[in-house]
Amino acid sequence: MTLSKQKIITIVTETRLESALCEDIEKLGGHGYTITDARGKGHRGVRDAVWAANANIRIEVVCEPEVAKNITEHLKKHYFDNYAMILFTGDVQVLRPDKF
Amino acid sequence: MTLSKQKIITIVTETRLESALCEDIEKLGGHGYTITDARGKGHRGVRDAVWAANANIRIEVVCEPEVAKNITEHLKKHYFDNYAMILFTGDVQVLRPDKF
Amino acid sequence: MTLSKQKIITIVTETRLESALCEDIEKLGGHGYTITDARGKGHRGVRDAVWAANANIRIEVVCEPEVAKNITEHLKKHYFDNYAMILFTGDVQVLRPDKF
Predict the structure, then answer these.
(1) Which fold has domain C3-95?
(2) Please, which pLDDT band fits residue A43 given cuts at 50, 70 and 90?
(3) Does B12 contact chain C (CB < 8 Å)?
């Protein structure tokens, strides 16, 4: 059984960004993503935006560390200052098919 | 790009605790939380409560280690023996705005 | 306050597998699981299956490392080649009741 060390990125943000972020993730090398609807509260530095209840999505991407870095940098550059967004990463071990 | 080492707390519990827990989390220093509806099964020691399907919530809080400790201790003291609740923590690296 | 080192397994797969997987998890020693509905996209090696939007579930199991290994091996053997499925594990610290 092969377990591969990878990164998981979790993004919680506004629902209206869903399709844009999914396109970005794929362009930047993410091979897949998982989205759940979420609600919550948070506030961010710049705009101090209060998140509306039920208007959030939670996106998970499991990917190579290099891809995780690229996605993180891209989101920071293009969304982080102008949208309610939190992004965090962690370490996971991923079950891979034998043929990889 | 600044990534900050923080803790993530995940709480899975009964839906009826949502507003009480959200208040507690904010009072104890959590700056935000993400909630998703969940179903599941589990049983806990004291009351051996079986979780009803679809009656659960999953709450995530990303915070400083000290805040994580305070939230964990508070929930243990006030809820853990009397409600169906699981709580676990992990390590995450969080993208922060430049201005912090 | 006792925090116990355990593993978390996250499985994202087709909704139709929910009841079969829940039975498997319990038989293999998992004492509980949390399920959320999810959507997403991914493709897998063997069948290169594209995941339908909204037809996924995300299952989390917090358990002892040995149980995590058994669940992972079982899912690899029985589902991984024939269904759209991603599985990854991570480290968590779990709040336990005093009586354990």
Answers:
(1) Alpha-Beta Plaits (3.30.70)
(2) low
(3) yes
- Mean pLDDT on C58-69: 97
Interface test with B, best of C10, C36, C56, C98 (most B CBs within 10 A): C36
* CATH code of the region B3-91: 3.30.70.120
* ipTM (interface pTM): 0.87
DSSP per position, chain A: --EEEEEEEEEEEEGGGHHHHHHHHHHTT---EEEEEEEEE---TTT-PPPPTT-EEEEEEEE-HHHHHHHHHHHHHHTTTTS-EEEEEEEEEEE--TT-
Q: Which CATH number fits domain A3-93: 3.60.20.10, 3.30.70.120, 3.90.76.10, 3.20.190.10?
A: 3.30.70.120
Sort out which chain B residues have CB atoms less than 8 A from C68's CB and list them. none
pLDDT digits (tens, 9 = 90+) for C10-42: 999 999 999 999 999 999 999 899 999 999 887
Q: Is any Cβ of chain A less than 8 angstroms from the Cβ of C76?
A: yes
pLDDT in tens, C77-92: 999 989 989 999 999 9
**B58 touching C (Cβ < 8 Å):** yes
Q: Does B90 touch chain C (CB under 8 A)?
A: yes
pLDDT of residue C44: 54
DSSP secondary-structure letter at C89?
Answer: E
Q: What is the pLDDT of residues B19-51, one digit of tens each?
A: 999 999 999 999 899 999 999 887 654 344 455
Of A77, A13, A69, A23, the residue nearest A89 (C-alpha): A69
Residue A40: phi and psi, rounded to 5, are 165, -170
List all residues of chain B from 25 to 54 with a beta carbon under 8 Å from chain A.
Answer: 26, 31-36
- pTM listed for this prediction: 0.90
Tokens of A1: 């059984």
